[in-house]
Amino acid sequence: MDQEMKDTLFATIDTLQEELVETVSQLVQHKSVSPVFAWELETSKGGETAVNKHMQILMNELGAKSEMFAIQDDRQNLCGVYKGSGEGKSLLFNGHVDVVPPGDLSQWKGQSPFSGEVEGDYIHGRGSVDMKGGLTAALFALKGILKAGYRPKGDVVYQFAVGEECKETELGTGACLDKGYLADAAIVCEPTSSAMNPFDICIAQAGVFEMTFRVKGKSCHAGARREVIRDGGAGDAVGVDAIEKGMIVYNALKDLERRWGQTKVHPMFKPGSFNLNAATIKAGVGPSLVAPDMEVAYGIFYCPTDEAKAAQLEIEEVVHNACLNDPWLRANPPEISWTFNWPAFSTAADDPFVLAVQKSVQKVVPEGGNLNSFFAVSDACFIQEKGVPVVLLGPGECLLCHTTEEKVAIAQLTQAAKIYALAIAEWCGIEKQD
Amino acid sequence: MDQEMKDTLFATIDTLQEELVETVSQLVQHKSVSPVFAWELETSKGGETAVNKHMQILMNELGAKSEMFAIQDDRQNLCGVYKGSGEGKSLLFNGHVDVVPPGDLSQWKGQSPFSGEVEGDYIHGRGSVDMKGGLTAALFALKGILKAGYRPKGDVVYQFAVGEECKETELGTGACLDKGYLADAAIVCEPTSSAMNPFDICIAQAGVFEMTFRVKGKSCHAGARREVIRDGGAGDAVGVDAIEKGMIVYNALKDLERRWGQTKVHPMFKPGSFNLNAATIKAGVGPSLVAPDMEVAYGIFYCPTDEAKAAQLEIEEVVHNACLNDPWLRANPPEISWTFNWPAFSTAADDPFVLAVQKSVQKVVPEGGNLNSFFAVSDACFIQEKGVPVVLLGPGECLLCHTTEEKVAIAQLTQAAKIYALAIAEWCGIEKQD
Known about the structure:
homodimer, alpha+beta, Aminopeptidase, Alpha-Beta Plaits, 2 domains, six-stranded mixed sheet, elongated
């Protein structure tokens, strides 16, 4: 790409800044809270669709071919393709239109969470960072290219999906992919900046399981505890303390967590990033009884290089082995339930697409474009499952997601639009319009 | 006591068996469930008073001076004194008239829980063992003495108290004691028989605390767990896992429990009878968060030779010390709450009263009268607090208390009446009526 092309693109996108800001502000005002949260259902109903209707108008103005469709109720995805001239690779921009609830309203200082208020250098509100800023910038990247008198050689594809916040991929990104909205590479426009590191390129995310184990004991009056635990006691003929038994399993999984600090490593993650978070414990019924049951629920962050099934089997084996030396647990093995799996993903650091994106970032933000892992989960894994190289890259500070201080810097929005435009230029190629 | 006196007493009490059985059966039919359980309040309302009205008629027939009084609502205690001729020591019989709820009605095989049905050798129903059988036998002991033509030399005192099952001593036994119904010694007529050992004499009971400790952590997203627990992490600047911290305290109390197996001994208890039953655990809010709090509730059985306050201090010191090596816990010490203390009691095995009672038992049941500790709690401790030597002794198998198989053997009821009559004879002395 020559200097003139770049200068023209940047200058054009700069002229779009006001419109870009106005669009993000308007999108924030659509209360597209995922209905799974059951937050003010009457207010938030159809919010996702409202965002996408808004975006479809913009998309159509650009000359993209768009489609809205819902798998469930009025929760419409928007997909679009801007056909390239035919000689370039295609690029998919993915983003979600749903947001999390605003949380404690009294914590929103000055602004109401859905005001979309523009104040100084920021647009405030729920969804400004996560992730209406990112998906708007992706659309304005194409708008900038076209307005500057260029056009992409490869197809530029958009998926503005519902149902990401609560992992309803079958309604959102997964459904868009199944409809055939695919490409040779993809950017998920989630926020990837931090105060120190603007525009990280996230090429991996940990997988997340939710797992619960339940141990059954045998309840008896606490006055008979002597029989249960003491020398000469009748043992399980009288009672079994589920808490003592549960601790055997808890401690074994704690050991596994420690071991993972050394056995589970990935170049994009700091050592020790893969953990078994014993998150909740429920045990027993009351002080006068030896506890009849214990239940521990985990949030488990596993390594992208592990197959989900393999990680599950490793954990189940640890639980199994922990019980081998305990006759009660051997005879009454813990019940394990896997209630949730958000898959991991990992894209090679030297993938040509990653290099192209990195080049694009650094032309806009020279200190940016560091390769990293994503701090949370995202729909990127579902895109990779289709064999598409994918990265996460977008405006906004990750740490503001889901907080009552959510706001996106206007300067970063414009930078993002430029970065995405350059990524289209680098990956799809662009050429002067006829 | 001469053989003739004994034979006359026994023969007389045998003639009272039918009436004794009928009385116990009728008392069981009063649904005197402690209102604290809120079990069918309309049905159980005034049940305690109904039992005592019934007993007062019998008591008055014997010529005792009786009094009914309530501290709360219509929950009337019955106290009575049969004045001795003046030359003997006085003896108090204490029992409670409240019962626990019937539990799962479908488990009551054949009988409804308040039928009081007499079937074969047993009277069935809630309260038959715990403890309407015992208190009726205590009254029939005096009835037998009088009907046989004797009279006690010392006073025979009765306390039929409300509010034992939920430790409302201030409404029941404690209130009776405060009214001045005291004596030189006391028998609490709780069931003390087991299949192998009829009519144990229980001269001690463990104290029972309910204690809860609460540990606060600092919640953060589970994705930041690395920062919380791993090498190089920011630690408590980001988050603190309340479960990991709570386990430090849990394990310290577990160690203390083990230690108590050697440090807390009492001749009436098998080694290891004093325990800290970690009965319930509640921790955390959900899999995606590092747990912000953990709460463990204990039922603690402590040694009668320990002052309650000393036992509390020992436990609090263990918790305190456990935190010393953990900067977070040192700065944020666990909150400990003591929600319940049912005091212990212990009467010397060689107390003259114990020996007198033992002699009485063995004249009726030669293999009975073993000295033991009581398997549960009782109001005996409140009597001992007044300086009165006290034992637990009564008909019925302890293990049937609070079960859906509660039933008392008729033969044991009659034996109990004989034992109590002999105890009056031994302790108060009896003489021929004028």
